[in-house]
Amino acid sequence: MTSEQRLAAPKGAAPQCVAWGLPYRPSAGHLPPAQRTLVAMLQYQAAQFGPRPLLRIAGQQWAHRDAARAAALRASALCDAGVQLGDRVALMSGNRIEYLETFLGAGWMGALCVPINTASMGPQIEYFLANSQAKLLVIEAEFLDRLRAADLGRTALREIWVLGDAGEAAGMWRPEPGIRMVAYPAATRAAAPASAVKPGHPLAIMYTSGTTGPAKGVLCPHAQYYWWGVNSAQVLGVVADDVLCTTLPLFHINALNTFAQAALLGCEVVFEPRFSASGFWPAMRQSGATVVYLLGAMVPILLAQPDAPGERDHKVRTGLGPGVPADAGRRFLERTGIQLLEGYGSTETNFTIATAPDSPRTGVMGWVRPGFEARVADEDDVEVAAGVAGELLLRACEPYAFASGYFNMPEKTVDAWRNLWFHTGDRVVRDADGAFRFVDRIKDAIRRRGENISSFEVEQVLLSHPGIAECAVYPVRSELAEEEVMAALVTRSGVRIDPAELARFCASRLPYFAVPRYVDILADLPRTENGKVQKYRLRERGVTSLTWDGTSTTRKPARA
Q1: Which CATH code of 3.40.50.2030, 3.40.50.150, 3.40.50.300, 3.40.50.980 fits the domain covering 36-44+60-220?
Q2: 501-528 pLDDT per residue, tens
Q3: CATH ID of 344-441, from 3.30.110.70, 2.30.30.100, 2.30.38.10, 1.10.287.130
Q4: Among candidate residues 155, 120, 117, 160, the one with its CA nearest the CA of residue 136
Q5: Are 372 and 395 a contacting pair, CB within 8 Å?
Q6: Could you give the residue ranges of the DSSP H alpha helices within 266-421?
Q7: DSSP code at position 533
Q8: pTM of the complete model
Q9: Of all helices (H) and strands (E), which one includes residue 48?
């Protein structure tokens, strides 16, 4: 029996929600509506899959029956620290078992986890703690020194649990009076699950990068986490014998989602400490992975490595690869035998759009999945015709399948969810066959020579050049009241790029106004911990003395 059959929709009357051209019948997964909580998921997996292997992480292992007990034990330690229903617990750690213990324990007792990106520095950490008003911070010792630049007096923090050598950490840095710092405590008694936790109860506050203001804390309810597991497992065809393997960090919904898939399907998940281009295939072989999770930037990085036998010597049958350029996906399939599935989802939504192994064509984000509605709209939220670019608007048929809003940001919440649709901020095109194509982030569009330019489209042309491994295209200020196109490039090993030749290459493939004026050749692109290129850092860097300027033979930078 396939996972699609196991997670099949029950028969019954169909709501007025249509996807893939068919009436939608809600897929209950394994749990009825009232039990779509983390607590019910843990109890379900313990009862259904008890002794089966569940996870491997940092040298430690759990069976499926261990997860509920670990959650109950950690919940008691949280209660002893004064954490109550609805309180926030911040987490700043690499991929280790204590991270999952705390995440599950908080959900078990009705507290909210606040994952913090491990690349965050003092001011960002202070903001996350102050905005969420977290009472407790669980942090690896190696990150403690960053708190020197944070004013913890602006926060509600009462206690810090240190992962690692707490004694050594205390000698490096001590919190201000009123904040207790201790080693990550052992737990010896199990707490009962909070009866007040319902599907709509918030499970986590996950911060997303703000483009025009501070990061927004996305309120993710329990049922949204459940639906992430159901939908992702269906897209990937996950079955009980699979081994899911991710190198992504646990502060990212993608990695947390792999745990939900394993809990619902009875399979195993392996969390690697980090992504490594040279170590990726050895890790896949050692883990026995059958399903992998990659982000767009990772695939070009892997393809830039020399061909090696290990790229075929594995058990991986499929993988998730949102944002992977179409050409890179084809080359990845040819080299590794792995077909990556494209899709669309955000922290605020769910896995709403996806391709399938038998999709009629590639190079698209996919088709809207059952259980969701999608619309491409103009600036007044009026739906546009097929083939016309507009903003992607989404909504769910099931209650609490999307985020509930932005924590402590009511105006931002109303704006993003206006007219009963979630506004993604992504410009897309819906083709006549119902497939959605990504065009650009609306705020990443470049206005030049009176034309709107898609940075994504320019990037696709640059990536088709045989000497370019990675690139990012973004706007910089010009001498005129408009923007210029700038490209930051990472070349393939041993390859030298002549920017003038590259400009001629682009001119034969792009409208004249879309050809990059400025080119920077870098050793690497600035990234988040999960591999996403940080274009704002490139924009802030702007034009330098080393930037090639297509309008100047002396390479003298223009005013940026």
Answers
A1: 3.40.50.980
A2: 999 999 888 878 889 999 999 999 998 7
A3: 2.30.38.10
A4: 160
A5: yes
A6: 280-287, 298-303, 326-336, 410-416
A7: B
A8: 0.83
A9: helix 38-49
